[in-house]
Amino acid sequence: MTVTHSGQRRTPKAAKTSSVFKKVVMAVSGIILVLYLIAHMVGNLKLFAGAETFNGYSEWIRRIGEPAVPGQTVLWIIRVVLLAAVVAHIWAAISLWRQAKRARPQQYVARKQVAQSYASRTMRWGGVILGLFVVYHLLDLTFGVANPAGHDATPYDRAIAGFSNPIVVGVYVVALLALGFHLRHGVWSATQTLGQSNKTRERTVNAFATVFAVVLTAGFLIPPLSVLVGIIE
Amino acid sequence: MNLKLRVWRQRSAAEKGKMVTYQVTDVSPDMSFLEMLDVLNEQLILDGEDPVSFDHDCREGICGSCGVMINGRAHGNGLFDDHPQTTTCQLHMRSFKDGDTIDIEPWRATAFPVIKDLAVDRSALDRIIQSGGYISAPTGTAPEAHSILVAKKDSDAAFDAATCIGCGACVAACPNASSMLFTSSKVVHLGLMPQGQPERNDRVVNMIHQQDLEGFGGCTNIGECSASCPKGISMENISRLNHDLLGALRAGARPKS
Predict the structure, then answer these.
(1) Are B69 and A114 an interchain contact pair (Cβ–Cβ within 8 Å)?
(2) B107 φ, ψ (degrees, to nearest 5)
(3) What is the helix (H) or strand (E) element at residue A158, kind and residue range?
(4) Min Cα–Cα distance to chain A from B71, Å
(5) In angstroms, what separates the C-alpha of A96 from chain B's closest C-alpha?
(6) Taking a contact as any Cβ pair under 8 Å apart, which residues of chain A between 73 and 132 contact chain B?
(7) Could you tell me if residue B226 is inside a domain?
(8) Among A209, B29, B58, B98, which is 20 to 30 Å from A82 by CA?
(9) Do both B40 and B137 map to the same domain?
(10) Where is the 2Fe-2S ferredoxin-type domain (chain B) (predicted)?
(11) Residues B81 and B47 reside in one and the same domain
């Protein structure tokens, strides 16, 4: 039995920064981001319900919790939690990336991988692409500064204006495919990291990860592609 | 059969190494991979050259001493569909074709410095064992088998983990040079047994702490380790280790430094 003395309760630096602890930070922050993505994807599909519904939904997000709390309180809580999750996710990733680089400075002359998937091989650079995309995406549709319709347009008009441009849609398609691959390995890896996988569950977890990644990516791809081909106007 | 070998030659950890090409002739398909290297070395000695250093001991696939990268795969595992996962000494030349070119390199990891040529220093794995791979229960005379009951599934899983021979193939194959499969198999094979419970929490935090100190990378659950392991140790052990570590940290176990 391990006896905990009061002085031991704070995690010392070594345990806090163990590679497995960093992976746990990665997994937990990833789960927070994935939960947000599910809500985000469902919200996007409201583009099909027309301008009024979509703009109303956008307005509602700002009013969640009213009148119990002042307007935008819940929105800001969500934003702060997401920002914290993104920072933690990136910190853990960079730290583990550097540890892996240090662990093998001399590369193999001949190298053959048999177990790794495209998804697992591209986690790190795919993550960098996603990080850059999120910055662009916020400038485009949240702040409106990178949007053809500008900041003063309604959310619906901004979405239509942006997604009518094939280049913009191209950027979104590339980033969303990167997201799909990131989720495919991320869901499986988080399950392992949190100690919830085993031999019998392994197949189910991997199958779920694939289905989840495909559904989420497809859900995100449908609105921009629909605007581009004119299903949504 | 005649083969072209490209072998990593490095005189010491301090010197730079490079791939050197050798021709070996009249190799019998019945030879093991290490016997083929013996043939090369006899030839090198007769020519007055320095023979290639490589680790080996039992040559029966059970000691974990041998192990080289063969055409980019640890022990050559994963190169041949009809060949079970095993150690370098149990790979036979019949798996290759006459005229093949074979690349032979040492395990590459900061934690495994090259001693000479293909021989690397794997004592980092011993230090991980020292940090927690033990039990304090008195051993000696075997107790009456029914005195401590162990569930069949636990004893099976513990035995599967205990088949790890500590060869280091998992580290060599891992894109992050992580020893997670090795460490997890040691944590799990003791952690599933009643005798392993007193140190269970301390074991996992200390062994992970030591693994990081040795300069291994972190696990990203890619699975190259398991696909290269001569004993086919499953990735489920890594999940079990993670589960134990979270429980141990919650219970207040901290690495002794």
Answers:
(1) no
(2) -55, 135
(3) helix A155-163
(4) 6
(5) 6
(6) 96, 99-100, 102-116, 120-121, 123
(7) yes
(8) A209
(9) no
(10) 18-108
(11) yes
Is the residue at B115 inside a domain?
no
Buried b (16+ CB within 10 A) or exposed e, A184-219: bbbbbbbbbbbbebbeeebeebbeebbebbeebbeb
Report the percent of chain B where pLDDT is more than 70: 100
Of B111, B216, B221, the CB nearest to A189: B221
Burial class of residue B35 (count of CB atoms within 10 Å of its CB; 0-12, 13-18, 19+): middle
Predicted confidence at residue A77, as pLDDT, reads: 96
pLDDT at A61: 94
Look at residues B185, B180, B245 and name the one whose alpha carbon lies nearest to residue B219.
B180
Average pLDDT, chain B: 95
Which of B 113-132 lie inside 8 A of A, CB atoms?
A: none
Distance (Å, rounded) from C-alpha A72 to C-alpha A66?
8
Q: How many domains does one find in chain B? A: 2
Optimal mutation site among B81, B182, B220, B257, interface A, most CBs of chain A within 10 A: B220
Look up tokens 């985000």; give the residue. Answer: A40
The answer to whether the Cβ–Cβ distance between B73 and A193 falls below 8 Å is no
Q: Are residue B78 and residue B133 in the same domain, yes or no?
A: no
CATH of the domain at B83: 3.10.20.30
Same domain, B98 and B31: yes
Per-residue pLDDT tens for B179-190?
Answer: 999 999 999 999
- Asked if the structure places residue B255 within a domain, the reply is no
Q: Give which of A19, A21, A26 to mutate to test B binding, by max B Cβ within 10 Å.
A: A19
CATH architecture, range A19-106+116-229? Up-down Bundle (1.20)
Chain A residues whose beta carbon lies within 8 Å of the beta carbon of residue B257: 12, 14
The reply to whether B100 and B128 lie within a common domain is no
Which helix (H) or strand (E) segment is B9 a member of?
strand B3-9
